[in-house]
Amino acid sequence: MAVFLPFVAFVAAITLLWSHEVDATDLSIFAFFYLLVGFGITIGYHRLFTHRSFAAVRPLQIVLAILGSMAAQGPVVEWVADHRKHHAHTDEEGDPHSPHVGHGTGLRGLVHAHVGWLFRTQGLADRRQYARDMREDPAMRRISRLFALWVALGLALPALAGFVLHGYTTDGALRGLLWGGLVRVFLLHHITWSINSVCHFAGRRRFEVDDHSTNVAWLALPSLGEAWHHNHHAFPRSHRHGLGRFEPDPSALVIRGLQAVGLAHEVVVIPPERQRAKLVGQGRPEPLGEARAA
């Protein structure tokens, strides 16, 4: 249902857009919730909880866990376990969503990495092994157990916004639900899944890594910086994935903003010399000491 219903809603939304039955309010509701919930995944689920790229004050941790849950991509503890398993077995047997092993290669592997894994391997990572810290956190366990509630909240809030902004009408609530809820879920799903599929299949590489990860520039802004995926696999704990001068990374900018106001600290930065040492042709440096906190 979480896969197919947003798809149907997306088709309906494109039909409305084509017939000019969409206004700036609809698109503003979509953009607001896309960014809000998207950062819950990229900054919260991924960079904070999975990789500990920075530390955050407790209220911010709670908010990010709930916002990430509203993306309907799985409970936070499960998501973290799956993603850490991906890094432990990247593009090898055991990777939950590699396009290269386990479930065929070529187009078949690409389909598995994008969406097929949701029906085969999602949620199967051993949480005791891959997410012990998250399981031992009472708040994270509670947020995970209430996952369905957060997904419902992620649909109710844009419906409420549409109801108010469109003049307290049922039609406005439905439009808010469509654009800020279902269409947002659909697009965030496929952008996130494209990191699993496209960013291990085609793109650019410059670091010495033992997997097929790539950087895909056209996905960088829609993914809020996650599509600099090859950089991320070279330096998993870096708070920045866009390491180059012309590699925009909105999520890293937000983390820096949170640090500036005292909500984030121990932000992990990869020094330029450490990056240069790992460039292709520069040898394989020792893995220790690769990061420092800013």
Main features:
mainly alpha, two-stranded antiparallel ribbon
Task: Summarize this structure briefly.
With 294 residues, this protein is mostly helical.
Number of E-type strands: 4
Give the averaged pLDDT, no decimals: 92
Topology as H/E string? HHEHHHHHHHHHHEEHE
**End-to-end CA span:** 42 Å
The largest beta-sheet arranges its strands as: 1-2
- The helix/strand class is mainly alpha
Main β-sheet description:
2 strands, antiparallel
Work out the oligomeric state of the chains in this entry.
single chain
Portion in helices: 55-70%
- Give the uncertain stretches in residue-range form: 284-291
Number of domains as seen in the coordinates: 1
Care to describe what's here?
This protein has 294 residues and is mainly alpha-helical. It has one domain (4-210). Helix content is 55%, strand content 3%. It is built from 13 helices and 4 strands. The protein has helices at residues 4-18, 24-50, 58-69, 76-88, 106-114, 127-130, 132-135, 138-145, 147-165, 170-197, 229-234, 250-260, 272-277; strands spanning 55-56, 264-265, 268-269, 292-293. The strands form 2 sheets. It has a two-stranded antiparallel ribbon. Helix 1 (4-18) crosses helix 10 (170-197), helix 3 packs parallel to helix 8 (138-145) and helix 9 (147-165) packs across helix 10. The longest helix has 28 residues, at 170-197. Residues 284-291 have low confidence and may be disordered.
Layout of helices and strands:
Layout: H1 4-18, H2 24-50, E1 55-56, H3 58-69, H4 76-88, H5 106-114, H6 127-130, H7 132-135, H8 138-145, H9 147-165, H10 170-197, H11 229-234, H12 250-260, E2 264-265, E3 268-269, H13 272-277, E4 292-293
Antiparallel strand pairs: 1-2, 3-4
